[in-house]
Fold:
Amino acid sequence: MTTREITDLEQTYVLGTYARAPFVLDHGQGCWVYDTDGAAYLDCMAGIAVNALGHADPELVAVLTEQAGKLWHVSNLYHSAPQARLAQKLCETSFADRVFFCNSGAEANEGALKFARKWAHDTYGPEKSAIVAFTGAFHGRTFGALAVTPREKYQAPFRPLLPGVRIAPFNDLAGTEAVMGDDVCAVIVEPVQGEGGIHPATPAFLAGLRELCDRHHALLIFDEIQCGLGRTGALWAYQGYGVTPDLLTAAKPLAGGLPMGAVLMTEAVADVMHPGDHGSTFAGGPLVASVAEAVLARVSDPAFLADVAAKGAYLRERLEEINSPHITEVRGVGLMLGADLDIPAADVVVAGYRHGLLMVNAGSNILRLVPPLVISREEIDLLVERLSGVFKEL
Ligand SMILES: *Cc1c(COP(=O)(O)O)cnc(C)c1O
Structure:
């Protein structure tokens, strides 16, 4: 099929919920992807912070193909070794005692919110059901996750949403305290906001949320779907902050590009969940779980994490050197960086295609760089060189 045939077909039959790039990606290797016309792109967005180990990583391909010839899916009515081992490793590398598997980020947050409600319901009664979320947050598109994603454009057409949600100002402890009460069962927050524009929480804010949750007997949920699993240079972003949640949601890079999510939790939360209380047909299947095991083993290596932190600092420093009046601020943690622009970020993303760069915006005026964690310094240099070229042109 020609590129034109593919795009025409898709535009005819696939629901038009995405604004797509004007080319068709065909294959990839490491931090590079190639389109059907043979053009090469340096991948600086990793499928929206998903492909942590890049494309076609030989170890992941080997694990996947071996498991593919063995067993794909059995449902959660049966035990399976990859899921058991992955759960152990997730617990051993975090605060968690138990893991619930699911298939996406939104589903992980749905699970976390349901577990928090059940915990509060069983421990204190049904009146303790309010949920606090923050301005600028993004937690997903399903109804529960959408209710804690206070963006008018996303929410308005789908009301009524899940009731009992209170929105507090991000990074504003006094403003959060004003909406807290003993009727709150959970506070959900991204330690580093992703879609909202790459805004790291301040350490004092997260520590203050922990304290507020303890005072009001509420659970603290960290959504680490984008910032977790090595992206910030710590395996889990909370470890970099030194503030421990009661629940943590993970997804995007967990299975290296295959759909998978997880909810990590303490025993106190796990204790209220019993057979039949929640579930998923596909979740934690042997195919995705075996790949996730390999991903987690790689990204949890202290040397790997130190390298992410060093490369993140290097990329940030190099970005700050780009001499463009359009860049007003560069910020972020590790390899999760954003640049505030005085022009639409979409213009930079589109111009980037012509310079062989795949990038993504985060909000209308913020350019987001979340490359594969395996990006090399040479590739970072090339990224910066090409991006400088883009800004010269605009
Ligand atoms: C992407 C994202 C989600 C939603 O994940 P999906 O897999 O798209 O449902 C939730 N929270 C954060 C922080 C995200 O970045």
